[in-house]
Design goal:
The chain is mainly α. It has two domains: 31 residues, no CATH class; 43 residues. It has one helix and two strands, in the order ββα. Bound molecules: zinc ion (ZN).
Length: 80
Amino acid sequence: MAQRTCPYCKERIRKGAVVCRYCRRDLPDPPSPSVRWPYLVLSVMGVLAAVAVLSLGTGYYQERLRWTEEEGGWEEPPGT
Ligand SMILES: [Zn+2]
C-alpha cells in the first residue's frame, strides 16, 4: 500500500510523490517519523550541554571556593 490519494484531484498517487502526476500540483509533505529525529537529538544535546555547563560552573565555583578558603587559611587574621 505505497499509495495515497491526491488531495486536489483525488487520484491515487505514489506515497513519496511531491508533485501529483495527474494535476501537477505540489503535494504537502507526507508525515514521516524521521523528520522528528533531528529535533529529538538537538533537544537531548541541548539538555546535555546545559547539564555540562552547569556542572562545569559548579565545579569551577567549588574549586574557587576551596582555593579561597586555603588562601584565607594561610593568612590567619591576628587575634584568634
Ligand atoms: Zn492530483
